[in-house]
Amino acid sequence: MTRPLDLVFFGLSLSSSWGNGHATTYRALLKGLARAGHRVLFLECDKPWYAPRRDLVDPPFCDFALYDGIDDLAAWSDRIAAADAVIVGSYVPDGIALLDHLQPRARRLVFYDIDTPVTLGALDRGHCDYLAARQLRELDLYLSFAGGATLRRLQELGARRAEALYCSVDPGLYHPIDIPPRWDLGYLGTYSPDRQPGLEALLLEPARRLPHLRFVVAGAQFPEGTRWPQNVTHIEHIPPAGHAEFYNAQRFTLNLTREAMRALGHAPSVRLFEAGACGTAILSDRWTGIDEVLPEGKAIILADGPDDVVAALSLPDGARRSLARSAREAVLARHTGEARARDLTALLGSIPARKEFSL
């Protein structure tokens, strides 16, 4: 790029990490953009469930504002019209109406899907709340959290151009900390019915088999009355400021992938990169493409069932540390916010503006 870009983002949330993985994804990317000298406005639809749980109310790396609905966007009409690109994320409230509103106003209209396999399933069923099938052809660029077969499927459905833009991590926040381990295996993630079988097989059942070891699950929205094994601690929510300490307090951490993402593959979660950046050894469920992110047996252990987890937890500390070191090296080389910001700006620079304008 020959000059800094001016970008407008609409996302599910930047201000609150409660119950979603979008906030930390946006924070790492936007920090990377700011460090490269780009200007960003992030607009978030104000929702009551986030209001009391905001852990970033005044981000130093971008302009930030809350809005109540599309009628409020007139306050930012000049900024939207002047932006090099307007980027709308998945799960944005009233996303379909928002995209229709922005389509004639944006120089480049981009959709950033942090939930692509879920989106594809919803489009196939004919009821996606935040994106209509007809809008795929109207987007200048479809950025997908997942790559591989997902990109081909998007183009079959009408996307003019689909490219992978994986999530990323801020190594300034996620890094090794010299603290003694509190748990042998932990998991960080909001409750999801389609991840629960994986949690049962790869953490709860190993906990029952290994009563002398310590386990932890940190995540909101687990059903009331959930029964945890005696050696499993449940923490309802850990804000991003506490993530690094949480990862570093585990000998191993568990990565679980939603069913739709696991089925299509090439969909690394932000938790995978966060744990890797912290230098924590990672166990994960298996899906196509994960070994392209972290090589199996070298930087990650893939577990198909409780036996694999039990075996991994008996590894010598030297082998565990080697796994963690390799994961951290891979993440810092290719999956930081700065790296992802370079990916994004290169992609934006390769598409023409709708109006007379050039990057």
Protein architecture, described:
By secondary structure, the chain is of the alpha/beta class. The strands form 2 sheets. Strands 3-2-1-4-5-6-7 form a 7-stranded parallel sheet, with helices on both faces. Helix 10 links the parallel strand 12 and strand 13. The termini are close together.
How do the helices and strands line up, and which of them pair or pack?
Blueprint: E1 6-11, H1 22-35, E2 39-45, E3 63-67, H2 77-82, E4 85-89, H3 95-102, E5 109-113, H4 116-125, E6 141-144, H5 149-156, E7 162-164, E8 183-188, H6 196-209, E9 215-218, E10 232-235, H7 243-248, E11 250-255, H8 259-264, H9 270-277, E12 281-284, H10 290-293, E13 301-302, H11 306-312, H12 317-334, H13 337-349
Parallel strand pairs: 1-2, 1-4, 2-3, 4-5, 5-6, 6-7, 8-9, 8-11, 9-10, 11-12, 12-13
Short structural description:
This protein is of the alpha/beta class and 359 residues long. It has helices at 22-35, 77-82, 95-102, 116-125, 149-156, 196-209, 243-248, 259-264, 270-277, 290-293, 306-312, 317-334, 337-349; strands spanning 6-11, 39-45, 63-67, 85-89, 109-113, 141-144, 162-164, 183-188, 215-218, 232-235, 250-255, 281-284, 301-302. It is 34% helix and 17% strand.
Radius of gyration, in angstroms, nearest whole number: 20 Å
Distance between the termini: 7 Å
- The residue ranges in which pLDDT falls below 50 over 5 or more consecutive positions are none
Mean pLDDT: 95
Lateral strand order in the biggest sheet:
3-2-1-4-5-6-7
Described by the principal axes of the CA atoms, the overall outline is globular
What is the number of beta strands?
13
Oligomeric grouping of the chains = single chain
Helical content stands at 25-40%
Strand portion: 15-25%
Largest sheet: 7 strands, parallel
Given helix and strand content, the structural type is alpha/beta
Number of helical regions: 13
| Succession of helices and strands | EHEEHEHEHEHEEHEEHEHHEHEHHH
